[in-house]
What we know:
By secondary structure, the chain is mainly α. The chain has a domain at about 95-210: Tetracycline Repressor, domain 2 (Orthogonal Bundle), CATH 1.10.357.10. The protein contains ten helices and no strands.
Amino acid sequence: MSTPSKDNAVRRIPRGEKRREEIAAVAERVFLDRGFAETTMQMIAAQAGASKETLYRHFGSKEGLFSAMVRSRSARITGVDDCELPVEAPPREVLFELGVSLLRFLVSADSLALYRMVVSEAPREPELGRIFYTQGPGRVLDKLARYLGAAMRRGKLRCLDPELAAKLFLGAIFCNRHVLELVAPGWNALSDEQIQAHVEEAVSLFLARYDPDFSDRAL
């Protein structure tokens, strides 16, 4: 009897994990609609068709539920949750794909609404800001820094401080655009072609500095 090939195998999601993802998706809508402070576990439970006990069993607290929601958003940018960026792939390819995914994601309406909510409520709920950073932007930064460090050890890049290099790359991708979208949403919107052109230029600038053949000479 033949067995299914590995490529054709379909990952079966356990019922508990599937239910957890469903609840996190509902919670995201409620958080964005009402804000963190005004959202209660009872509201989320009612919207999800679950009991509060189920929510507490899966997430422990409202902060734990928010953390899971942000972590899921981070995974949408870098790939499957808890997986590393592909170490063997060339830097230009990895940086371009990550940059395009990141910029597309950050200028989406839901992502901007989430940022505004966190910025608004973090002064009253400092833990909310910490959770958001560590499970969102901080996770993307850490994954990129680990990839850059691995690429340096393989001789593909020359960056003695991978974390600093990662910060510079991510800043080049979204800093100006993100500020603009936050304060003037919808103004001078980017097309997908413009997003890709922006990322391609940022990748080229990055590699001009960190390519192994780079030499310290005046430009």
